Amino acid sequence: MKKLPKINRRDFLTLFGLTSAAAGCPAMASAMQASDPDKQYKTFQATCSMECLHCNLRAYVKDGVIEKIGNANAFDGKPCARGLSRIKWVYAKDRILYPMKRVGERGEAKFERISWNEALDTIAAKIKEAIQKGGSESLLFTSASGNMDSLFNPSQVAFGNYLGGTTRTAGSLCCSAVTATMMPMVGKRYVDTRDTIDQAKYIICWGNNPLVTMQAYWHYYLKAKENGAKIVVIDPRKNETAYRADKWVPIIPGTDSALALGMIRWIGENNLLDTKFLQEHTGAGYLVGKDGKLLREDLKDPNSYLVLDSKTNKLARHDAPGVVPQLQVKDNPEYKTVLTMVLEQAEPWTPEAVEKTTSVPAATVKELAHDYATSKASMIVNNMGSFQRTEFGSQAVGGQYYLAFLTGNIGKAGTGICDAGGAQQMAKFGAPIPAPLEKPKKVAPIPTAKLGEYVLAGKPNKINFWYTQTCGIVGQWPNANKVIEAVKSVPFFVVAESIMTPTATYADILLPATTVFEYDSVMAGTRNHYVQLIEKAVEPQGEAKPDYVIFGELAKRLGFGDRYIVPVEQMIRNVLKPSGITYEEIKKGPVCPVKGPWIPFKDGKFYTPTGKAHLFCEPWAAKGFLPVVTYRQVKESPVGNPELAKKYPLMAIQRKVIRNIHTSFQNNEWLDELFAKEPTVQMHTKDAQARGIKQGDKVVVYNDRGQHPTVAIVNDDILPGVLCLENGWWMGQNGFNSSSVLTNDTVEVLGTGTSICSTLVDVKKA
Ligand SMILES: Nc1nc2c(c(=O)[nH]1)N[C@H]1C(S)=C(S)[C@@H](COP(=O)(O)OP(=O)(O)OC[C@H]3O[C@@H](n4cnc5c(=O)[nH]c(N)nc54)[C@H](O)[C@@H]3O)O[C@H]1N2
Ligand SMILES: Nc1nc2c(c(=O)[nH]1)N[C@H]1C(S)=C(S)[C@@H](COP(=O)(O)OP(=O)(O)OC[C@H]3O[C@@H](n4cnc5c(=O)[nH]c(N)nc54)[C@H](O)[C@@H]3O)O[C@H]1N2
Ligand SMILES: [Mo]
């Protein structure tokens, strides 16, 4: 008998859309009743704009009130319970309705209502004061994934530029490691292969859980299965996708690049390289000199890479007519090829060596390599996965790309590496607001992972004023307790929010932000293939304003309103202009910039300056790293730091859950009815028994950074020695807190990302 997925009943119901979600939540059900909808209601389009798949939404409005939410165009799937529950975001009990000033301690949530004028005048004065004291670099502006449309965060960035350049964060909380690999290797980020998943024959979900995290297009995977595809999941825990897959391959966290190198070695050894693809479409044959640098014909021409022509056995430019590069040049004292370098790094990774480091059995390493190389239409799904939120995450991503290049599994239907992807990658879009006349100065940023530490240390600049929007500063950023200390240390802290979140409770001035359906905007993003208009369906609750309007008001007070303020329809037109898509078109409905299935790097055409895929990453070398993928041991791990592991022997990883998108939706009344009220930690039976912990026990996961009270899930569907924590719980929610109080704040080295999945902890009964 087929094993059923072990997701709870409500998770399961929610996955399958409207009616089933409604079954778990009567209020949601009544709001969704669709008796002749279009005639009774005025309808407006929008999109679910936080960091998810930006599904299209339609608000049904009667007498100025949104009565239900549906979707206009089911291009990727129907919106999930979260999308539908946005009605309860607009009309939330804890909506912030008015500007307020703090009257209690930071974090106490004691506020007093003030007028917009008082709020804006105070903020403008504080900005001026901060600049006077410490220059514009003493202003810190943060924004992240709460609203990823084309106006909101860009209006903050533009505002900072008009102020002369401010401190911002560098890298992302999310997937900078993927960017650090894709940019040098393929010349572009956010290219997804969702359109042809159904044509893949072999799919590896690598550190990725699409059933939960890419829910809207999970149906493509079901289609692939129907078409006979085999799905394999590589994850330290048996995730929700793994229950539906053909194989679960547990792996020790942070060791994915060793597995990739082992697969590469086996593929090379067994002559399964796609030589034609490598010769024609990649830089595998570029020559590397004794100094470890790529050889060029003309040092002034960065694209003049030299290869050894296999016909003439002479050096030639890689792109000279008729040249076919030799892929391996051995025993030449002057140079070797990039492929030789790659295979040298793979050489130590015999199946047995891989098993020792990763815990993946040697036989499985061979099987994965064989099946991936021979299935003819193999796809890897990494989609911003947690596997890359480790110290050397870029290496693991690089290993995945090598596998695709070496076997020619890229640029064709059913192949490739599925990343997040959207309209941004298919067309050009413009900035909504013109740049200031005076160029802003370059200000050294703060790596996202180090927000707490840097602000506390006044690094690189002492911060006098901090303005934040669209992110969960308190609770969602690594080493959360340190971030809270940092927030408390800054003289003036402004938060723009729609909901009384933990971050909001720390504000000196709290500004009421609008939510989707209360403003006009446009989404030309990196998570959905369609350009979507976001329409104002109802008047904002209370005195809420869109972030771009707030900045316009501040700009007036600071003397640059004339140039900065652009009417919203014009901002939308400015964004659309370079793409050729018009406002009038998207008014009718979502528009995809390309026709037919989107196949990134189609026919082996990459976005690097040479049009070839590059296996040698010069930007990595510039940072002092080996330019090809290698295995590096993460420091915060039992092998990397045995001393620390004596105190904290367990490896804590993170997972996304269906009830929220990060801290967003976590307070939503309808979702609260549908889902668990407590965060969980999954652990192996052995680890639980050793600590006297049973299924359902209240436990505390802890390390030197903090303590995370949670509830134990005990089973054998996770590797011994690994704990899996949930993402998104609020500080203080239902007596619990965020798992971020524990997370490692080491900077992921190549992409300036985070290392939250390389965290050592222990767990005890509460
Ligand atoms: N429901 C929901 N969907 C979301 C989000 C959300 O918050 N909620 N967030 C969105 C965002 S911003 C992102 S970045 C994506 C993330 O999308 P995913 O990557 O699919 O999500 P995660 O749950 O973070 O990680 C996937 C799996 O990686 C495993 N893992 C952890 N460490 C390692 C490791 O070292 N190696 C390997 N092989 N596996 C490891 C975890 O056990 C987990 O099951 O999801 C997006 N979609
Ligand atoms: N422990 C742990 N930490 C993690 C992760 C994990 O798996 N575990 N995952 C990491 C990843 S992959 C990511 S991407 C990050 C995400 O982390 P963040 O980007 O900080 O995301 P959220 O916590 O969802 O915060 C978004 C906030 O924006 C607000 N918001 C929404 N729309 C608007 C708007 O229009 N205007 C304004 N002003 N505010 C708005 C929402 O109400 C919400 O409070 O978290 C990272 N941190
Ligand atoms: Mo993310």
Automatic annotation (TrEMBL):
One of its GO terms (molecular function) is molybdopterin cofactor binding. PROSITE patterns: MOLYBDOPTERIN_PROK_2, PROKAR_LIPOPROTEIN, TAT. The keyword Signal applies. Keywords: Iron, Iron-sulfur, Metal-binding, Molybdenum, Oxidoreductase, Signal. InterPro entries: Asp_de-COase-like_dom_sf (IPR009010), MoPterin_dinucl-bd_dom (IPR006657), Mopterin_OxRdtase (IPR006656), Mopterin_OxRdtase_prok_CS (IPR006655), Prok_Mopterin_Oxidored (IPR050612), TAT_signal (IPR006311). Residues 1-29 form the signal peptide. Its cofactor is Mo-bis(molybdopterin guanine dinucleotide). It holds the Pfam family Molybdopterin. The keyword Cell membrane does not apply. Residues 95-557 form the Molybdopterin oxidoreductase domain. Residues 651-746 form the Molybdopterin dinucleotide-binding domain. Belongs to the prokaryotic molybdopterin-containing oxidoreductase family. This is DMSO reductase. It comes from Turicimonas muris.
